[in-house]
Every structure is written in C-alpha cells, then in structure tokens.
Amino acid sequence: MMERIEHCLKGKEDTSHIFPFLWLHGEEHDRLVEEIDAVYNSGIREICFESRPYEDFCGDKWWEDFAFMLQEARKRNMRVWLLDDKHFPTGYANGSIEKKYPHLRRKCVRIECLDVAGPVIGSSFIADRYDKNSEELVSVSAYRRTGNDEEVDGRTGVLLTSNVKNGLVYWDVPEGVWRVFFVIKTQRGPAHFKNYIDMCDEESCHVMIKEIYEPHYERFGKYFGNTFRGFFSDEPCFANNIGSYYDTLGIPSLILPWRNYMIEMLAKRADLSAEEAELLLPGLWYEVSGKTSRLRYAYMETVTHLYRDNFSRMIGNWCRERGVLYIGHVIEDMNTHMRLGYGSGHFFRALDGQDMSGIDVVLHQILPGITDMINKSSSSRGVADPNFFINTLPKLGASCAHLDPKKKNRAMVELYGAYGFAEGLSVMKYLTDLMLAGGMNHFVPHAFTAKDNDPDCPPHFYANGRNPQFPSFKLLMEYLQRASHVLYGGVHVANAAVFYNAEGEWCGGKYRLFQDVASVLAKAQIDFDIVPADALENAVVKDGKLVVNEEKFDALVISYSEVLPKKLLEIFDSLARKGLCVIFTDDYPDRTEENFESEEELIAIRKNTRKLVERCITVPTDMVASYFKEKGFVDVELKDPNPYTRVLHMSEDDGDAYFFFNLSMEKDVDTKVYFRNNRFANFYEYDIWNNKVYKYPVDKDEARLVLPKGQAVLLFACNDEFEDAPAKQYDFDFKKLNADFDVYLIESNNKMYYDKM
C-alpha cells in the first residue's frame, strides 16, 4: 500500500488503469493522429479502438489503418486494445455468419399449443404449425389442464411426437380439457440478431476467432503482449429477444436458445431419461404442476455452461495462449445479467474466460442525487433502479474480480457514455467516485471519436477540439489514474457474502432479488461481495469465516426464494455445519426443485428441505444490517449512520486504504468514524486530486469524517510516518463575495469573443 502511495506522490503510478474507446469509421490518418494525441494529452497511455462501424473492418483499408495506429501508439509508448467486432454487440462476427456460415446461425425453439376437450376417439390435429423451409418440429406432447390459469397437470403428460404422420398428430383424447404443445426449432427472433453467432454451439462461436481474432494475430502478432494488450467483447448475449430486461423462462411468447442434442443434455443434467426430458419441454414456457422447477433449472444450468465454455472460455484461452488479455462486459441492466434475451444467463459464467471483470454505466442509469427511487434513463426500457445500478452493479463487477484468481482483482467499468454533452466533468467525477467506492479499478471512458460532429452517444471528450471542458478532462483522468493505482492493491475487506441468487429466479417460484439485501447492507456501510454457487463449491470455512480466493466473510446471506436446487441447499448446509453463519432473508425456502406427483411426495420434499436448512437462520431483509452490527460483523462504523455514505476498504501487509464517498447531493457528512479492525499506528488522508498527503488525527481508532455532498476522501493507515505532512483543515470561515461577473460566449478554437450573455 505504501509503495503505491509513494508511486503517486512521485508521479510514477501505473498507467494501465484507463483505456478509453476511440471510435473509427475510416477517417484519414491525420484525424487519427489528432485523436490519439488528444488521448495522450489527457494523461492516458492506453486506448481501445472500436469500429463504429468501420465498413471495411478486416479489409485492406482496415489492416492499413490498424497497422498505422499500432505504430503511432508504439511511438508514444502507448498500448492498444481492440473491440472485437465490426459493430457492437459482439457476436456479429463481421457479417461472416450471413456470408459464409449461414448453417451456424443461432438456433432457438418456440412453442405453439392448442386446447381440446375430451373424450374424443380417433382425433387428429394439424402438426404443420411451422415454416417447413426454415423450421422443424422437435416435440409434441399433451397435458390435462388444471383450471388454475394456464397450468397443466404434470402427472398427465403424454408424448405424441411419434404420433405425427403426414402433417397430422393422431391421438385418442382422454376425458377432460387438454393442451397439446408443439415445440418447434426456429431461426426466428430479432432481425438485428438474425446473423449472429450461436452461443450454444462451439463451432459457431469459433467463427469469432477464425474471422476476427486470427486475422489480427496473423498480421500483428509481433505487437501481441507488448503494444497490443488484448481484445474487448462488448455486450455479447443469447440474442433470442431484444428490447426487454425480463426474458425469463415461463413466458409463452419467448423463443429460447437451443442446439442439437439439447434434450439429451437436459436429461443428463436433470437425471431424467431423454423421453422424460422431451415430455417436460413445455415446462420451459408453461407451468407443469410438480415438474416445472427441475427442468427450468436444468435448462438454465445447461445454456449458461454452454455460453461459458463455447464463447467466454474459448476466446479467453485463445488470447492467453498468445500473450494478450481478454476483457469486456455483458448487458447487466436491471438484472438482465441472469436472464436470456439481452442477457448472458449468468454474470459470472459469462465473464469466466475474461482476465478482468466488466460492467458499464451509461445512458443516465445513475443520476447524481437520485439514490432511492427509480429514475428516467435513456436506456431501452426508459427507467433505472438505483437499488441495482448504485448498490448492486458495481459490487457485481468488483466481486467477480475478487473471487476469480485469473482476474487478479482487475475490475473494469465502461463509464460516462451516452449522457450527452450536458454531463460535464462534475457528473463524471461523481460517477467516478461511486465506481471507485464500489471496487472498480479499471476504466473505459466512453468515448473519443475520430468522426467530426459525431452524433453518436456523446459526450465526446475531445470532439475535434470543440469540447470546452477538454483541457480539464486531463485533471479528472490523472485523479482517476492515481485513485485506481492505490485502490487496486491489496485484499478487499468485507463482512457479508451476498449469494448470487440466479437459481431462485430460474427455479420458477416466488423470490426476492438479491439487490434488496445488497441495498440494505450498502446503506449501512457494511461491505459485501456477491458470491455465485460456483464459487461456493470450493469455498472453505476457517475460524467461522467463509473464505473464497483471498476474500473472507463473516456470513453468507441468501435472498428469499421459494424454490432452490437441492445441491445448493446441501452446500449451504455443509457451510453451516462447519461453523459459518448462513442467513436466509425473510423465510426459508419451501422446497427444492425436485419433481413430485402427489401431496405425500411434496410433503417429503418439504421435510427434507427443512432438514437441510435447520442449521441456518432467517432474518428479515430490512434487519440484516442490524443483525450484522449486533453480531459484531462490522469493519467500519459511523457514529451517525446515514444511507448515503459508501466505503471501500483495501488491506495490505504494510497499510490499509479506506475510500469514502457521499452519494448525497443535499447533505454533507460530518460525523465520527470507527475503524473496528485497525492494525496501524498512523492515519493520513491522501488528497488524490492535488496529490498531497495530510495528517489525519485518530484517537483510539476513532476519527472525524467530513464528506461534503457528492465528494470522496481516501484515508490510509500505516506504521510509516510522513513527518512533513501538514494537518488537514476542515473548518473554514466563509465570507460572501459581492462580485459581479461578465460572461461571454467564445467559439471553439477561436480566441475572439463574439457575444456577451
């Protein structure tokens, strides 16, 4: 820690923490040089080139321009990243699916159904409910309706696929009202994603490597691992829908990702026969009583592992074998990260192959001062929830970096974009501090552009010299570089492990989003990481604490879920048996995902479920922070708690850093702060903006914390002494200045004033 502080004070901090986008469209070389120089003159030493779009991407002109840009970067001792497709989102593969590999387009399934009243002997129904030129029938089945909404009785399923002949399905309908389901393989879906790769298919995903990654390596391999640092995937997704954040199983109109042998894969994961798995397929869209949860859980487990293995891991391994890194982010918005459509199904699995975690905050998703109510945004759904974007999203990104050794604590956020030129540096500073307090330490400012008067998602930091705030942009970047350098080091200190409860949603019962308990903890200055099931499988309990990688937690908190997988409850039970405090919010789960056909079987499942959680406790969501304080699971505590203060604690052998941020734009913070686990004799404030150290008076691990509205402070504890450091002054006498100002407008790049306001 102390070495990092010294680096900053001497102007020798690591410059690898910032790499803004520079958008390319085929501009002349002099314009490219001007923008590269603008990046360099901002104090930034890395850059991420993005086709936005560059029409000849991976063509002769592109190779010429990219070679030129690599050479210009090398001249300036800069390093280069590349966004990995002709246009975002990643997965278009530069149009090669349409042109060369149409057989590798993404595949999906959809469902059609009809209702029929029995008994009817010798009945037949039209099975040709699909386009024979582009679709095929996967399965036909029937279930008796229960009369409860559109639910069907899971005990009554009949597989009718073999009854299809000459476009008709023949069946003697038993007594009752029955629903006949037709599962159809299709390439329907959003036109935008028609020619995208198939995340469920390894050969299709490999097209990205074949058509984009390998051609760059063949031409520029000598730059790999030195000037060229790596590739960036931007918002890859399953692409089975567009325009919605809520693409979960159980929506009849939703098409779903598919692949050959999917039925056999589902059968293996759900411990069913292939015939049983095929019969249960309607449960992906409709309620099949007693049998919905098991199949839905098996399906989401299957497709998210396919995404991880076929796309994320394959590309990441390819990059590392050639000495470069693989980074990027998926769409996280409003919990899309654990859903289909825009989503990638599972945040941690989608980023598993990457060398950094990644998120983005754009489109007015966070507005300074709006911290406890939904706000309007420029996103596709038009709204943003601070419980997610402020209290949860940064922790998702930071947690992924903390828990995966491959990521080495590298947490990246794409920031500032599409807020418009009105955003300004003050809003950018607010967003910066919020991300730092959340644990992010690598930044992709959005964006520089080589296009003159580019209307695409401003602000543009240089804007061909027309952005009047550009001269001061460097000050923000220098601040960010120093802050990231200090906060990147060490081990994150947190008290709570909040379970990444995708499974609670997947299994189909009632559930509560984990962002709710995350918000309760954040507002009480109790820090946490978000921990997925995969990370818990190899976790240990030591001295009553959960240990994952280098992270240690006092308790595991699981948000309420009516249904959870049995193997997950067995993990929770094992951790509790070893002495960990395991908390379910609000109530215990009612049952596991296991199938049942009778009340007796359901009672037995519930009984076994209760046995698996008997060593765990329940705490109401809004009381979780109070419970942590009661048990002493606290690291930093305020004398006068408020819901606006956020804190990040990073610890190393020679010192600890504490970064505090005040979210409020209305209220200053002036209170006592208690450092419950302090190990050091001295405290200092590191004034990041002015690059100065001040003495910080602490009495028995208690100190005064002053945070003006919307501002941050970095404190550090150590045994070293900065003898020449002055004391920081917090109390000032203010005088009102009775001054008049004349304000003039000045045209960009012009020294002549032309209008007085």
Protein described:
The protein has a six-stranded parallel beta sheet. The model has no long low-confidence stretch (mean pLDDT 96). Among the domains are: 103-190 and 253-269, no CATH class; 493-631, 3-Layer(aba) Sandwich (Rossmann fold). α5 runs parallel beside α8 (292-321). The protein is an alpha/beta fold and 757 residues long. The radius of gyration is 28 Å and the shape is globular.
Per-chain topology:
Elements: H1 2-9, E1 21-24, H2 29-41, E2 46-51, H3 60-75, E3 79-83, H4 96-99, E4 108-126, E5 136-144, E6 158-159, E7 164-165, E8 168-186, H5 202-220, E9 228-234, E10 256-257, H6 262-270, H7 274-279, H8 292-321, E11 325-329, H9 347-350, E12 357-361, E13 375-376, E14 383-384, H10 386-389, H11 393-403, E15 411-415, H12 424-438, E16 442-445, E17 448-449, H13 470-488, E18 491-492, E19 496-499, H14 502-506, H15 515-523, E20 528-531, H16 533-536, E21 540-542, E22 545-548, E23 551-553, E24 555-558, E25 563-564, H17 566-577, E26 581-585, E27 591-592, H18 599-612, E28 617-619, H19 624-631, E29 636-638, E30 645-652, E31 655-662, E32 669-675, E33 682-687, E34 692-695, E35 698-699, E36 702-707, E37 712-718, E38 744-746, E39 753-756
Parallel strand pairs: 1-2, 1-17, 2-3, 3-9, 9-11, 12-15, 15-16, 19-20, 19-24, 24-26, 25-27, 26-28
Antiparallel strand pairs: 4-8, 4-10, 5-6, 5-8, 7-8, 13-14, 18-30, 21-22, 22-23, 29-32, 30-31, 31-37, 32-36, 33-34, 33-37, 35-36, 38-39
Helix pairs in contact: 2-3, 5-8, 6-8, 12-13
